[in-house]
Amino acid sequence: MTEITDFNKTKLANSLGMAKKAGKIATGEELVIKSIQADRARLVFVAHDGAPNLVKRITDKTTYYEIPMLDIFSAAELSHAIGSDRKVIAVQDKGFAKKMESLMK
């Protein structure tokens, strides 16, 4: 995992908030898994402090379906970014996903 600056982490969180306002995310374990299986998910965020079985399940799905997954946020940070209590988020828009991935470089 590459090291990410606090500045870019803040920009990533802001981008997640914008994606939520635009209706371009799926949240919660079941909806994210359905999004992955339906080939709608472009980038998945899972809280690094989420339950081990949740992290494993999401990791397995994203690996199998070859979808990038990031675990740089805590559950509190993810929840704060989108304004609701969540541990896993799928970005379903290519534009938002591309911008977020560019912040990782």
Q: How would you describe what is shown here?
A:
Pfam families: Ribosomal_L7Ae (PF01248). This protein is of the alpha+beta class. The protein has a single domain (4-101), classed as 60s Ribosomal Protein L30, Chain: A (2-Layer Sandwich), CATH 3.30.1330.30. Helices cover 53% and strands 12% of the residues. It is built from 5 helices and 4 strands; from the N terminus they run αβαβαβαβα. It has helices at residues 6-21, 29-37, 52-64, 75-82, 94-103, and strands spanning 25-27, 43-46, 69-70, 88-91. A 4-stranded mixed β-sheet has the order 1-4-2-3, with helices on both faces. α1 runs antiparallel to α5 (94-103) and α2 runs parallel beside α3 (52-64). The longest helix has 16 residues, at 6-21. The radius of gyration is 12 Å and the shape is globular. The termini are close together.
**CATH fold name, please?**
60s Ribosomal Protein L30, Chain: A
Listing every helix as H and every strand as E from the N terminus to the C terminus, the arrangement reads: HEHEHEHEH
Give the name of the CATH architecture.
Answer: 2-Layer Sandwich
Quickly count the domains. Answer: 1
Q: Please list the strands of the largest sheet in the order they lie side by side.
A: 1-4-2-3
Number of strands: 4
Rg calc: 12 Å
N- and C-termini, Cα separation: 11 Å
CATH homologous superfamily? Ribosomal protein L30/S12
> What share of the residues does DSSP label as strand, in percent?
5-15%
